[in-house]
Amino acid sequence: MNTDPIADFLSRVRNASAAGLAEVLAPYSKIKAEMSRILAEEGYIWSYEVDTKAAHPQLKLKLKYDNKAPVIRALRRVSKPGVRTYVAVNEIPRVLGGLGISILSTSKGVMTGSKARKAKLGGELLALVW
Question: What is the CATH number of the domain that holds 113?
């Protein structure tokens, strides 16, 4: 039994990216779909889609590479089920001086750290991507 589905999702993406795979499948959930949307909007993956043909819905992500090097250099899970990490708007980290993104779960939905700063929202810091 998987106790942290978001960490499992990030590990699947990280491992598939490091292995040079074109696509990765992960079990579907709304928060993972929102994280996939953010990765696509920020240019870390080509696209994602929800595959409902299987018995259990799955996310299919098309990974992005730059000269055979993965665009996603690292994915780090910050807030874990045992130790949640909440940040105020002035505590949202800037990843690699703005070259990476932080993903937050706010009261207005899942968004990047820069969008949360503009909306003056804090929330749970889910992951860092660069």
Answer: 3.30.1490.10
Which pair of tokens denotes residue 96?
Answer: 């690699």
pLDDT tens over the chain, length 130 residues: 578 999 999 999 999 999 999 999 999 999 999 999 999 999 999 999 998 888 999 999 999 999 999 999 999 999 999 999 999 999 999 999 999 999 999 999 999 999 999 999 999 999 999 9
Domain residues for the domain of 109 are 75-129
Q: Number of structural domains, the chain?
A: 2
Residue tagged 């690699």 (tokens):
96
Tokens standing for residue 129 = 């991507």
Q: Does the reported pTM lie above 0.85? A: yes
Number of H helices, E strands in the chain: 3, 10
- In 20-52, where does DSSP find H-type helix? 30-41
CATH number of the domain that 56 lies in?
3.30.1370.30
